Amino acid sequence: MVNIMIKSMTGFASGRGAHKGWSWNWDLRAVNGRGLELRLRVPDWLEGLEQRLRAELQKAISRGNVTLNLRLNREAAVGELELDMATLDQVLAALRRIETTADGNHMLKLAPTSAAEILSLPTLSNASLSDAERTALVKALLADVKPVIQGFDDMRIAEGSALADVISEQLDQVESLVEAAKSAAESRKEQQAARLAENLAKVLENAESIDPTRVAQELAMIAVKTDVTEEMDRLTAHVSAARELLEQDAPIGRKFDFLTQEFNREANTLCSKAQSTELTRIGLDLKAVIDQMREQVQNVE
């Protein structure tokens, strides 16, 4: 089993916190992606929060489609605030239009909006924050999100460890199949020689004159077209390269994905050159294992 640190692109973490009349919930999750795509849903009236959250996420994540949601609620009682009723009417009317459009035009059922969420809008009351209070809230949020990101990263490392074990076992299978292919190719030589001799005898019987040089060239070309030594050597080298990648403490997903394409190319060539039932079977088994490995590699950061 492999005891190294690679990370899965998929993960999830959540958390909650509070600060001076405010409470919040974090939701952080990620799925596979070709590059790094960050989607943040945070209050836009907290200036600088989104940019600093992006910076924190980029420290821990290099690849994947990542979504971070922040639900921020004001805990103060409604009676303690002087509400801007005109603005409240506009907000509620807008919410109703959104819900009606989503349900009627798009067949979407939206989650109910709570009074606390509506109340958290800074334009609804006279309790808007001063610059100092805003700065303190942003600071509290940034401190609170760090353990959420760490929990998210821990989950990806755990999943990555399981992926590494699976991929390592698949590399062992590839290595065993390559050794079997070498034995099958060696056994095939006598059959090939006998077949070539038989075909050559037929040609000589039916030809009045034949150029010995041309015959030698054709035989050499046939031998080259059926030789699988290079393919097996490259497959062995790819196995070594893959194991070296697994030992790296860095994102390896893209490199490994490219390497699995090279694995597949060599397996395809082996099958096309096989000219042997046993070697063809081994080549097909190789392709199956390589496809399974590539599926696992798609999840690696």
Features:
301 residues, four-stranded mixed β-sheet, 8 helices, 63% helix
What would you note in describing this structure?
- The chain is of the alpha+beta class.
- It folds into 2 domains: 11-159, no CATH class; 160-297, no CATH class.
- Helices cover 63% and strands 12% of the residues.
- The protein has a 4-stranded mixed beta sheet.
- Strand 1 (11-19) and strand 2 (22-31) form a beta hairpin.
- It is elongated, with a radius of gyration of 32 Å.
- The model has no long low-confidence stretch (mean pLDDT 85).
Average pLDDT confidence is 85
> How does the helix and strand content classify structurally?
alpha+beta
The global form is elongated
- Number of extended strands: 4
The strand line-up of the biggest sheet is 1-2-4-3
Tell me the number of helical segments per DSSP (H or I, 4 or more residues long): 8
Radius of gyration: 32 Å
Helical amount among residues, as a percent range? 55-70%
Largest sheet: 4 strands, mixed
Spans of at least 5 consecutive residues with low confidence: none
Please give the alpha-carbon distance between the first and last residues: 20 Å
* Number of separate domains: 2
Strand fraction band? 5-15%
Secondary-structure element string: EEEHEHHHHHHH
